[in-house]
Design brief:
There is one protein chain. Helices cover 43% and strands 18% of the residues. The chain has two domains: 224 residues, Glycogen Phosphorylase B (Rossmann fold, 3-Layer(aba) Sandwich); 185 residues, Glycogen Phosphorylase B (Rossmann fold). Helix 2 packs parallel to helix 3 and helix 8 crosses helix 13. It is α/β, with parallel strands linked by helices.
């Protein structure tokens, strides 16, 4: 027998906006729909600079058997803290009435951090007595403090109180890493509420699109004779992408003219980096911009080295970048500036090299080590795929669904 649920998912970002959490929401929603659940998503209209080019969307539409409801945005999320907070606040205000209405016929509400979605889910639990599950890929306000974006003590105090209220009004909570789980436990939340549901890799999507677009991408991006070092995803404050500009300037000065650094993606620091590259005449860095997601596997595969980074902050040791999972099955060596959970993942599956966060000399030494030796790349890719396939990770949500009390739901068991 299989339980069929009516699920409402809430997150501020969704396809065609493909942030890490936007992708997480989409792939979860579609996986639940494939398993026979009735799935709705409440989100906002996408930000252009984070969206897949050439895609349009409507206020209401059905995408891959998922009903998608969108509210209009007043403020764009950007690096100005006050504007970002207003963006979250207006998402809550604009979504609340619709969220309460949709939840009338909902068995479980799954909100995905940041905290704005969690507030909506908690309100529904309080008013409608629905099971609220809070999925936590990012812990706020800790993450904002680590990025240097939230500094006001009064605001920090208020946000911590708000965070605790959301946790207290969530019947269940999941985190992407064990480090995040320990962080929430240390804030006084019961271990009975908590579970670990990691990020994943959609292997069929990756392999299919690699096969379809490998030749096309190789022809389009013809960098013959160059060693390609590539960064994919959000070009934002937490990634401290300035370290890669400094790195390539240093390689320039040492006449390593065969190394080319590629930025695939966009973000709040992209314009700043472009201006710096132009001003300092750094010729071995190229900004590839946003690309359609179907081309990502081929672009990763044509790269020689894949890199990512975090700022040097103890809280960031609790995180694993979502891009790392697709990096891992690209079968190309990874260099990451990080500690903690990310470091453990790379070392467990022999996926590449780990340096101290934002350490320019560490990245330089590792790139030279891969190019000139003695580093030998022997990844445990099959084991990694078995542990982090989308299919296997989604099964972990069955434990959440099975714990919903039958007295509080409208579903019936179907043979």
């Amino acid at each position: 027998m299989q339980v069929k649920l009516k699920i409402l998912m809430i997150h501020q970002h969704y396809f065609p906006e493909m942030t890490g959490t936007g992708r997480r929401t989409k792939e979860l929603a579609e996986s639940f729909a494939k398993k026979g659940h009735d799935v709705s998503v409440l989100t906002s209209f996408p930000r252009d600079f984070r969206s897949m080019p050439g895609e349009n969307c409507s206020q209401y539409e059905i995408l891959n058997d998922v009903r998608v409801y969108r509210v209009k945005t007043v403020f764009n999320v950007n690096k100005i803290v006050l504007v970002r907070l207003f963006s979250y606040l207006f998402f809550i205000i604009q979504s609340l009435k619709l969220a309460l209405k949709i939840s009338n016929k909902t068995d479980i509400v799954i909100s995905i951090a940041p905290i704005a979605a969690g507030i909506l889910g908690a309100i529904i639990q309080v008013i409608k007595k629905k099971h609220h599950h809070f999925d936590v890929p990012d812990i706020l306000p800790d993450l904002g403090i680590s990025a240097g974006m939230i500094k006001n003590r009064g605001l920090i105090f208020f946000l911590y109180k708000l965070e605790k209220w959301v946790y207290n009004n969530s019947k269940s909570i999941s985190t992407c890493t064990n480090g995040q789980l320990r962080n929430i436990l240390n804030k006084g939340i019961s271990h009975k509420k908590l579970s670990h549901i990691p990020d994943w890799v959609d292997t069929p999507f990756f392999n299919k699109n690699l096969s379809l677009y490998k030749k096309e991408c190789e022809n389009k991006y013809n960098f013959t004779g160059k060693i390609l070092v590539s960064f994919f995803g959000n070009i934002g404050a937490l990634q401290n992408p300035h370290v890669f500009i400094k790195l390539m300037k240093s390689f320039n000065e040492e006449n390593y003219n065969n190394i080319l650094f590629l930025f695939f993606g966009d973000g709040i620091l992209c314009s700043e980096l472009k201006n710096k590259v132009k001003k300092e005449n750094i010729k071995n860095v190229k900004f590839m911009g946003r690309i359609n997601r179907k081309y990502v596997p081929a672009c990763m595969n044509m790269s020689d080295i894949l890199v990512t980074n975090y700022v040097s902050d103890s809280h960031l040791s609790l995180y694993i970048p979502g891009k790392l999972f697709e990096y891992a099955i690209s079968r190309k060596p990874i260099i990451i500036g990080s500690r903690g959970d990310s470091k453990e993942l790379i070392e467990k599956y022999s996926l590449g090299l780990v340096v101290e966060p934002s350490n320019e000399s560490g990245f330089k030494k590792s790139i030279k080590n891969i190019i000139d030796g003695p580093y030998e790349y022997l990844p445990k890719t099959i084991q990694f795929i078995n542990d982090y396939s989308l299919k296997n990770v989604v099964k972990l949500y069955d434990n959440v669904f099975n714990n919903i009390s039958t007295s509080n739901t409208s579903w019936r068991k179907n043979v």
